[in-house]
Amino acid sequence: MEGIMVRHPANPVLSADRIPYPATLIFNAGVAKYQGRYVMVFRNDYGGQPGTTGFKGTNIGVAYSSDGIVWEPRSKPWIEWKTEEIRRAYDPRITVIDNRCYLCFAVDTRHGIRGGIAVSDDLDRWEVLSLSAPDNRNMVLFPEKVNGKFLRLERPFPVYGRGGPENFDLWYSDSPDGVYWGNTNLVLGSELVPWANAKVGPGAPPVKTRAGWQAAIVARSRRPNGQGWSSAFRRQLQRALASGLLFARAPGAEASRQLPRKRGTLTGDDVSVGATHRTPHVRNSG
Description:
6-stranded antiparallel sheet; 1 helix; 20 strands; 47% strand; globular
């Protein structure tokens, strides 16, 4: 798997101390090319200490780049969604479909975790199209419609029915309009990934290749000294079908360092949630 995912020597390409508004942790950034430049949407936990859960709040920020390496954040956060029912929106992915920016994100509510999909034409105004039933998140959209339908990968997390502490799997759904979703099918069970022993899910939005759709997935392994995430590319040879799937026998990237971890936010992990296709390279934001 050497060469599949390569860390750029300039990492981190964007850090919290460069954000012009309160920021403690910025991570899980989705990336796409839109209107001639790269755009990043990132999660920002602010008002706390890394490695804890005691943050004042969470918002979603935006940054721009001409080359995908040097980034300039906007002066203000973009989305901070909080109501009596909704606690926060976070972990954004971004996909450009028909010249419109579609966002996938997780939403913590008083009654569970929901997967959200929104659309924007200017990265200023945004319209929520869909919120799933709990518990579901880690959604990514395919960058084009197939047979007139939106396609998405997702990772629901059934605590009771699946058994085990975190045996969560990779699923597929489609939609005629981005609002109503169905045709839900299992794509990959976590037990089928030989280099992981816990949950798996979609990472970056899929990229179309000559052989079919290629996507990065993330998988967690529980180890005696802790747990960590790995990323890998897997190829979907038949569009959005559970049959005909190939995936890497080893991860394409793993956490490059082990950092101290307190209860709460994970540190020292590779979770690929953004990729852009630029011949002959695919950029990994993890």
